[in-house]
Model the fold of this input.
Amino acid sequence: MRNYTKHYINGEWVESTGSETEDVINPAAEEVTGRISMGTQEDLDRAVQAARDAFPSFSTTTKEYRAELLENIAKEYENRKDDLIEVITEELGSPVSMTEKVHYNMGLQHFKETAKQLRDFEFTERRGETLIAKEPIGVSGLITPWNFPTNQTSTKLAGALAAGSTVVLKPAELTPYAAILLAEIFEKAGVPKGVFNLVNGSGETIGNGISSHPGIDLVSFTGSGAVGQKVSENAAKTIKKVALELGGKSPLVILDDADVEKAAKTAVSNVVMNTGQVCTAATRTLVPRSMHEAFIEAVKEVLPKFRVGDPKDENNVVGPLVAQKQWDRVQGYIEKGMEEGATLVAGGTGKPEGLEEGYYVKPTVFTDVRNDMVIAQEEIFGPVMSIITYDDIDEAIEIANDTVYGLAGYVFGEDEEKLKKVAASLQAGRITVNNAKADFSAPFGGYKESGVGREWGDYGIEEYLEVKAILGMPS
Ligand code: NAP
Ligand code: MG
Done:
């Protein structure tokens, strides 16, 4: 049993001022693996005070110092590789191969890439008599979700520390272990006391506490739209800067000249990755009407190759959902799709055969989906694909953009003019053409209701800065 009942405040592991704890569940076994403390307002106040006290000194360090600090963090993170993989596999239910390739690696890349970008980052700019100076904003409150326990925390932490901001982090209750390891990593890497503070607890107490705290200057939140709204409302009362990374219902536009097998593989892997618990998942698959039958056959062929099962088994690529609540939610959407008259191609309700224990779902594919159906408009956060057919490229673009979201978009095919046209027309913050490889230097964030602001790399540093113009600055 993991007994993680302390918070990390002002460079020390301290007891909570409250006595409430919360069990952490392994979603593959439905078993308690440990517990955390549910922090109190008093715990949060102490953490905010520590971050405020550390700010004057940390905010005036050189960028070289902070770049080196991030590099040290990356090294210590690498030293804890096995531990990180173990806890993320356990708390999230992510298959061990994916935990390493995706979760472990993304967290690492953010520290490395941000350190690199920081070395080249210009904090001042001269325009004649005027000096424009970018200064760290103050104390940042970071609230992160459970679906990417290292990626979401690392990108925020790297950006904030690079900028010279001090932080208070509240990770999701469902997956707190990775953040606790990060605190140990930061301590080992020599992050000065008070610069990084971790308070575990509920969204209700610590989440609301952060977004409305007068001692916090910026709140960066990743999670659901409903909570994002609440964070904004709370933050408005003290005019905090707000960064929101919310949900998505991203389209994958398959062109009529695409290789059908490759397109099907791309579509399926994108939907089942992390058991569909991905904000950028391409859950609306737009297929040319002429290709529809062949595409369905190809999807049926490829889907069983994405093996569902025990996250500890190297051969599995799809694990359980993170919690019973998410399982119920996904079942509800699958039922809704059937009620709405979409055609079930694969999967459906219930657990996959032989996987009665654990929050497993069947990877599910619907076709004959209309874009106005609930399953095409709402974020399901499970491995559920909605296939929508189109007649010409303009119609595909219109359908793709007919959503309140705008986080990501994907296009797959051969014709370069069409690839460019679709990429330019999709209203979303991150477009991927033909499975392009990851780029950790490129900004990440959403249009429309998918969010406000950008993370990753130099844009992620900008988020934690204020801009000062000094007119008549002597040189
Ligand atoms: P959520 O409720 O938005 O939780 C995200 C984070 O916000 C967690 O740390 C949560 O704490 C905290 N939180 C909860 N209530 C809060 C409040 N009033 N003020 C401030 N922070 C608060 O998301 P969820 O319940 O975990 O997931 C629900 C749905 O959100 C998913 O099904 C999915 O559609 C979406 N989602 C999107 C992303 C994304 O990457 N865009 C990530 C996760 C979820 P606790 O965990 O302790 O409650
Ligand atoms: Mg927006």
